[in-house]
Amino acid sequence: xxxxxxxNHARMLDEKDELAIYHKRFFNSDDNLIYMxxxxxxxxxxxxxxxxxxxxxxxxxEQLIRSWGINWxxxxxxxxEKIAKFIGAGPDQVVVSDSTSVNLYKLxxxxxxxxxxxxxxxxxxxxxxxxxxxxxxxxQVLGGKHKIQVLEPVDGMRVETRKVLEAINExxxxxxxxxxxxxxxxxxxxxxxxxxAHQKGALVLWDLSHSVGAVPVELDEWxxxxxxxxxxxxxxxxxxxPAFLYVRKDLQDKAIxxxxxxxxxxxxxxxGLEYAPANGINRFLSGTPPILSMMAIEPGLDLILEIGxxxxxxxxxxxxxxxxxxxDARLAPLGFxxxxxxxxxxxxxxxxxxxxxxxxxxxxxxxxxxxIPDFREPNNLRLGLSPLYTSFEEVWSxxxxxxxxxxxxxxxxxxxxxxxxx
Length: 422
What we know:
Elements: H1 7-16, E1 34-35, H2 46-62, H3 67-72, H4 75-84, E2 94-96, H5 100-114, E3 120-124, H6 129-141, E4 147-151, H7 161-167, E5 172-178, H8 190-199, E6 203-207, H9 219-222, E7 226-229, E8 244-247, H10 291-295, H11 298-307, H12 309-331, E9 337-338, E10 350-354, H13 358-368, E11 371-372, E12 374-376, E13 380-384, H14 392-407
Parallel strand pairs: 1-11, 3-4, 3-5, 5-6, 6-7
Antiparallel strand pairs: 2-8, 7-8, 9-10, 10-13, 12-13
Helix pairs in contact: 1-14, 5-6, 12-14
């Protein structure tokens, strides 16, 4: 890349950015803070402040339990319909429910029960560890009869599509991968993998946590069977916000959730003593939803729907290309290695840069330079680029401050001892 790496060029890019006006739609108490962790926890939309205040004061405080009949009971479905519009899903296939982990467990068990004669699960070592733990738990609960094939990356950042396809055979019950890899930002060819898995008779479950809201997703077009995703990253739903799940329409009445709760029952307010699963997607609900955090998701959803995924993806690409050009010019000479793919079509919306002292550099950035990235073992600094609010000047300042930390040896004053949360 031969981009101008001056600060003035960054400011010129911001002037041309059609999404720059949306920066003001997010709460910001410190103009000097460079926030590069939107791929872990998105910023707070200003509309969410008013929305949650109304929920607490008017809906809970004044309407009390009557709010269940007004809009609370319907929230999992109608919020799911909003998410469906930007993940390429038709009506009645998405609900907001539980956490990503709980949803993945429900759908993985359901998929394996639909394929009782098949004994193989295909995933990869780049998957989020929680997903792997859950698959191990599924195997245990189902009697230990399944083999989990964990594909290893060749370069630390990706597993080639060819290798995934080679692993899928007639004994494969389930293929489950993260659409965008959490460390490197590698973006899988979901359509090709899904189509091939179906040729072999396998089902596919995608984890969209690092792609939803930043990368185009077309679940119906892919022919996806199942999907899960969180809402606190690029959707900006808030810490611990409920997740969502997708089940393809024609599978809904064949598949059964392993968690039988009253919100997934056919007639929950009849209070019968024998469980009868609801028809359609609602059978994958379980217990009473956390209304305060669930309703706080909506302003972030509305922002994405207002802008549209094509514009968000275009901004994401421009940001990541710009960051990589600065990386090549200013950080590569200092011993940093790019830990994300250079190919645009293979990259999500966060960039991983690697350095032997990444952990201490991360601490110095947070404590002394007013930059918040995040660290992932063993040597990854992740820089999350949220197309809704990250500016080109912030990218420039982030790289500038990383360079200063290393050239001025600021990181050497921090211990190389991991904190509980990294």
